[in-house]
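Q: Structure for this?
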Amino acid sequence: MGVNSDDPPVDTEEAIMRATYRALCNHGYANLTMQAIADEFDKTKGVLHYHYDTKQDLLVSFLEYLLSAFQENIAVDGADPAERLEALIETLLFGPPERGRFDHWELTTAMLEIRSEAPHNNEFRRQLSRNYETVEATVVAIVEAGIEQGIFRDVDPEQVATLLLASINGARIYQVTLERDDVAEVTRSSLDAILEHWLYCPDELDSGANADGTVGED
Amino acid sequence: MGVNSDDPPVDTEEAIMRATYRALCNHGYANLTMQAIADEFDKTKGVLHYHYDTKQDLLVSFLEYLLSAFQENIAVDGADPAERLEALIETLLFGPPERGRFDHWELTTAMLEIRSEAPHNNEFRRQLSRNYETVEATVVAIVEAGIEQGIFRDVDPEQVATLLLASINGARIYQVTLERDDVAEVTRSSLDAILEHWLYCPDELDSGANADGTVGED
């Protein structure tokens, strides 16, 4: 299981969320019944129903919970736009440098299953959209800062954000659904090549900015 | 429904596949029972069981059926690698120029639901992998031809293929799961920018090769 067993005691709602995560990982979305969740939980099914009127309500809270874990994970600091962008790509593709609440590939699988319900579920779609917009705004802000500082060319920040997020989303989904374990790695090297040719200013490239990520401010 | 109503009469297996597609579109994977499929079918549930021992067997055949429709769609002709690559991107993102057997976004949604089962299903994963490898080989062959003809730089064809396929997969999934209808369009413009900066040789760019897609052979 991806949840750390040495975590401190948790409240009931957190315990229900973790039980839902385990049930989802073990049984898949199609078999995610209230009973399957209760089986992963040290209290009765009645407690689930006390906290959530319907399975749908529980799953909406669960998606909020996953997305908040995700947003914690992608917080990247640092003043240098090139470093921040590379750290963000690394975290989105492979998970946070310090292990988060969940195993990265388990979380990717769980998110894929929830996502596959979104075409039929307005509430899921709304939450996923807000999440997307938050991450997109993060990338756009980094790219704008890089252009401002003369590190990046005058690219369209929205184009960069869309391509990064779509390729990372696609690569993570391939990674858990294909018999290939190199898709995320190859995607990272492709994104490195793209940043080099599309984003970084040639002068900065010549000074080795892309190789070690330590670009000086202009 | 995406299936053309003016198609000629079909055999029983084709009729079962179409019924499965309709049931999947109407009810989602989580509610895709043999009864739901039978309800979309003009014969009895017994006929389903006569052809397929289990729902699992039926779904394996259904995935083969979807992937074969997909492979028909991505067949691109033409001698010029730049044109072939752009036609392939267009078809993968938006569907074939002449309407195929299915509506493109319905097919994307159905494939997403099947894909979300793949982490738990070896047979689905195997089929999706073979499909991925076929499309990947198509992109690699186009890129190799472009390098050979001096139209493309000496890029790594596998990196190009992985990035194109991951970003298109991710963009299609965003398109059907977010409250945004522009992700596929913005991804196309991002891919145009990438091809321009990463792939096309500068000389060819200067001669307008990227703008009208009519690159002369060297």
